[in-house]
Amino acid sequence: MDIFVYKNPNEPTLMEQGEILNNIDSKMWIERYRDAGEFTLIAPISSQIRVKCPIGSFISHTNTREIMVVENHEINDDSTSEAIVTVTGRSLETVLENRIAGSNKTFPVSGQVVDLTLAANYTQQQAVTLINTYVGTAALIDDDDAIPHIIALTDMPNQGSNEARTFKRDTVYKLLKDLLVIDNLGIKVMRYGVGSTYDRTWTQLVIHQGKSIDSSKAVFSIAEGGIETADYLYSNKNVKNAALVTSKWFELTVKNWNGTYNGYARRMLYIDASDLDQQYTTQPTGSLATSIQQMLTIRGQSAIQAHNAKTVLNPKALDKAHIPVFRRDYDVGDVLFVGPNMMRVSEYVEIEDDKGDAGYPTFTDPGDLNV
User: Fold this and answer.
1) Under a CB-based contact definition with an 8 Å cutoff, are residues 98 and 362 in contact?
2) How many CB atoms lie within 10 A of CB 370?
3) Helices assigned H by DSSP within the chain
4) Whose C-alpha in 102, 139, 243, 323 is 20 to 30 A from the C-alpha of 202?
5) 304: alpha, beta or left, given left = phi > 0 and alpha = psi -120 to 50?
């Protein structure tokens, strides 16, 4: 796992001029389906890692297309040994925490402030629009708000839910994650390489749902010889498939997308969403009432998705001749067989230190499958 840092002094988000980081004692690199990936590098202070890999810089490694942002330097120093530097950070899409949805206007603005609305479209297309509205010069009023050389797209067909959605102001990253959870979508970073839609000056934020991997190509199974031991946890203790959502002025129920859970199978969740309309002293009507109810629906959908995970814990891969190879046979977000069940790869952890190197996936229930 050769870690490198981008060193473009004039355009830091133009991902080029990489430099390999040497003398690192320990490396951990985690890629995730929807949540932010993260990394940890541990090196002696004599490695000059603080200088070579400054806070705010971008790193990747030679086996991945993902890019991560350096966020922290921690120094552990004592009198008996050389100081140790721990460098940590998260995946590139977290820069969207530094953009506020609702800020793309000519200010000052007078009159009643209204909530944000995304026009009716498929969820993946709304996610692309949300990102590009706040990072691309084409849509921005203030070009200084742009994050150059970053663009969002989706490789998904038009499928899933399709409706207008309304949000309260928040970070673009927070609203993006709220959108992705509705249809169980993921986001991945793709630096320039084979299959890039744009030229080498662009880094892509791709909204996706993974691929369905044929069982002849990738199976994690004790019977197939790929797993020595595995602890399977199948539990419906926390599963919910419908929600009662209540605000100050409205109350409604939300059901999962396929709507098949009735009678004994229905598992309700209660959500207090009074923060969405508590500021109003009289009951909202008209378009304002409609937008509040849309936000209640999104709140319910997000909560249901968050309560629908089955997890396979600690599959220990032994026979590398039979084990599927990460990034060759499958990737984060893909759906494949783990034992007798179809599961989604929700994260993959790579570790390299003086004991050698290792990598292992984590699997979760794939939800309603469209892959």
Assistant:
1) no
2) 15
3) 49-52, 123-135, 172-182, 286-306
4) 102
5) alpha
Summarised one tens digit per residue, pLDDT across range 222-232 is 555 556 666 66
pLDDT tens readout for residues 93-129: 999 999 999 988 888 888 877 888 899 999 999 999 9
* Tokens linked to 338: 């783990």
pTM of the model: 0.85
Question: Token match 């133009």: residue?
Answer: 14
Distance CA 53, CA 157 (A): 39
**What are the C-alpha distances in Å from 123 to residues 39, 59, 76, 296, 333?**
29, 30, 45, 17, 17
C-beta of residue 241 within 8 angstroms of C-beta of residue 247: no
Nearest to 11 by CA among 156, 200, 139: 200
Residues 6 or more apart whose Cβ sits within 8 Å of residue 284: 249, 277, 292
User: Number of C-alpha atoms within 13 angstroms, CB side, residue 216?
Assistant: 0
Which sign does the torsion angle of CA 126, 129, 135, 140 carry?
A: negative
CA 31 to chain centre: 9
